[in-house]
UniProtKB/TrEMBL annotation:
The keyword Transmembrane helix applies. The lineage of its organism: Eukaryota, Viridiplantae, Streptophyta, Embryophyta, Tracheophyta. Its main location: membrane. It comes from Sesamum indicum (Oriental sesame). The keyword Transmembrane helix applies. The gene is LOC105172897. This is Protein RER1.
Length: 195
C-alpha cells in the first residue's frame, strides 16, 4: 500500500492540467473564429481601450503603466508598418519590395501581420487594465512630462518610418484595387473624325 497516499496530489495536478488544456483549446477556437471579422475585433478592442482610459481618468493615476503601454504600442506599430524583408538591412533572393518603377510588382508583406498586431494590442490593454487594480504599479509622476516625451518619441519614430516608406516606395495599406493604366489603342487616337 505504498502508492495510496501519493495519488491525491498527482491526480489533482493532472485534472488541473487537463482543465487548463480544455480552456486553452476553447480560447483558441474562439480566437480562430474571430479571425475573418476584423472590423468587429477592432471595435471590441476600442471598447477595451475606452474602459481602460476611463479607469485611468477616474483614478487619476497609473501614468507609468500608461506610458509603458504607449511605448509598447509604438513598438507594435513600427512592426505593423515595416516590411517583412527590409531592403536597407538585408538584401535577399526572396520576396522584397520593388525599388524601381520597372521592377516586378510584389505585394507588401508586413513584419507583424494585422491579426497579431490586434491580438498584442488587445492583450496589452487587458494586462494594463488588470495592473490598475494593484497600487504598487501606481508610481507618482508628473504626467505632462511623460506625455510630451512620448509625443516627441512618436513624432521622431513616425518621421523615420515615413522616410523609409518614401525611400523604398511602399505603402503599408491597401487603398482599393490597383488598376493598370496602359496606352490608349492606336486606332482610336489616330483615326480621323467622320464629319
Amino acid at each position: 500500500m505504498e502508492g495510496v497516499g501519493g495519488d491525491g496530489p498527482s491526480t489533482a495536478a493532472a485534472a488541473l492540467n487537463q482543465r487548463r488544456n480544455e480552456v486553452s483549446k476553447l480560447f483558441q477556437y474562439y480566437l480562430d473564429k474571430s479571425t475573418p471579422h476584423a472590423l468587429y475585433r477592432w471595435i471590441g478592442t476600442f471598447v477595451v481601450v475606452l474602459v481602460y482610459a476611463l479607469r485611468v481618468y477616474y483614478i487619476q493615476g497609473f501614468y507609468i503603466v500608461s506610458y509603458g503601454l504607449g511605448i509598447y504600442i509604438l513598438n507594435l506599430l513600427i512592426g505593423f508598418l515595416s516590411p517583412l524583408v527590409d531592403p536597407e538591412l538585408e538584401p535577399s533572393d526572396g520576396p522584397s519590395l520593388p525599388t524601381k518603377g520597372s521592377d516586378e510588382f510584389k505585394p507588401f508583406i508586413r513584419r507583424l501581420p494585422e491579426f497579431k498586431f490586434w491580438y498584442a494590442i488587445t492583450k496589452a490593454f487587458c494586462i494594463a487594465f488588470i495592473m490598475t487594480f494593484f497600487s504598487m504599479f501606481d508610481v507618482p509622476v508628473f504626467w505632462p512630462i511623460l506625455l510630451c516625451y512620448w509625443l516627441v518619441l512618436f513624432a521622431l519614430t513616425m518621421k523615420r518610418q515615413i522616410m523609409h516608406m518614401i525611400k523604398y516606395k511602399y505603402i503599408p495599406f491597401n487603398i482599393g484595387k490597383q488598376t493598370y493604366k496602359g496606352k490608349k489603342p492606336a486606332s482610336s487616337a489616330s483615326s480621323p473624325r467622320a464629319d
